[in-house]
Amino acid sequence: MGRVLSRLGFVALGALVVSLVFSGVLIVDLLGSPIGNTAGEDRPEPDLFVSLFLPASESPYMQQIIQGARESAQDHGLGLSVHRLGDGNFRFAGLSGTNGVIVYPTLDEQYIRSTLYDLRNRGIPTVLMEHGIHDVEPWPLVGTNNFDLGRRIGEILLAQNQEERVVIVYSQRSPGIWAEKELVEMGIASVSGLSLAAPVQSRLTSENPLGAEDLMNQILRNESQVTTLVFTDTDDTLAALQVLIDLNMVGRVEVIGFGTDEQILDYLSTGILTATLVIRPQEIGYNAVKVLNEQIRRGFSPGYQDTPVSVLWGGS
């Protein structure tokens, strides 16, 4: 009996430690980027606290998501903590005292799903970001319509008025797009009048910033049949274009970029970049917190909130 009580006490202590760890992260996050009162503003202290779980990536895309989420938390009177999904702490989210959870699911779906069920059983609202989970009932989702992203790519290819041999370069820094690559490629195929010389090929770059450089060098040297590269990450776009410039081979392949980084806009204006795909990660982060706030305070929110995709053209 004593052993049983001791074990129960250990479990309770473990739950308390988990709660304190999450609380500590929350306090540090709030002190580092205050979401209550800010300079020159008289805002009430947040009455509810929510948690955002993202892949362990320092990409500009993820940083913009965080920025949008923090702005939304301020606007809706919420405290916000940000956690790395790969640290293993997502499974303990239900013990953290959080009022709601947003997660960008990139790990094993079974692991994510079991934690989502635990959160639901505890009455903790959840919102998925960018990539859904296959389940009997849909979970609230905020993110990019990747079929629409594919259609935008197809429209750019159609405007080139030539039979293209296309390689789409996916990235682990944009995991939501990679996870739904079939939707992207279905969107391309849906564009009326588009005729490609060969089926679309795909490649995947890692978090390593040299991955796009190596890929561009390989294509320039060994795959002369490729006419167009489509990137789904800002850093990959910039790295690949730098290779073209360094080798004095601008124009050897058409490049469709990703994002609105200042340097990308410069490449657009000079014609080095054919076009760039524009999604709004800051808006995704903002809307995810907004939808979660509605769930917490009203018990209802839209099942899916789409973030539009647009195109900026070279010379514009």
From TrEMBL:
Keywords: Signal. It holds the Pfam family Peripla_BP_4. The keyword Signal applies. This is Periplasmic binding protein domain-containing protein. InterPro entries: Peripla_BP_I, SBP_2_dom. Belongs to the bacterial solute-binding protein 2 family. It comes from the Bacteria. One of its GO terms (molecular function) is carbohydrate binding. GO terms for cellular component: cell envelope. Its main location: other. It comes from Spirochaeta lutea. Residues 97-296 form the Periplasmic binding protein domain. It is found in: Cell envelope.
